[in-house]
Specification:
Length: 189
Amino acid sequence: MMKSLIAAAALGLAFVAPVHSATYAIDPTHTFVTYEVSHFGTSTNRGRFDKKEGTVQFDRAAKSGKVEVVFDLKSVNTGVEMMNKHLQSADFFDSEKYPIAKFVGDKFVFKGDKVEAVSGTLTLRDKTMPVTLKATNFNCYMSPMLKREVCGGDFETTIKRSQWGVNYGLEFGMADDVRLLIQVEAVKQ
């Protein structure tokens, strides 16, 4: 659920840039953070975070960088208003007290010149835990519309929500594992 944060998370927006360090801004119209969690082993509940922003500092030659992505927990969207409100409550995100979640990634893993994973931390409900986002797709291209380089990909991870103190329903069989799926694109500044 809140795993979407990260998400962000993430977001493992490891971007391959030119030879020198560059800054990229996350494009919120091409960035989607969704989560999937088993509902008692019967079906899969899904949701997303509609408001997110962030930047990426990336140095292709040094194979290093830093990603910071912030998610507005009040923007959780399951398509069902009653469920959105419950997720924002103290049972889950407690978004009145902790309105944002943040992923900061500072370790980029490469396979050749392609980003394979981004490791860092996810902060949710004032708890910070390590998270690694694995790339299932990654590319950079020159945007014909923006006339600037755009880099991004699809990243994913599975986290245990209980690590962030989100324990609601565990005692009666609700899943602890949450799969985060992060589609991200960022524009070179």
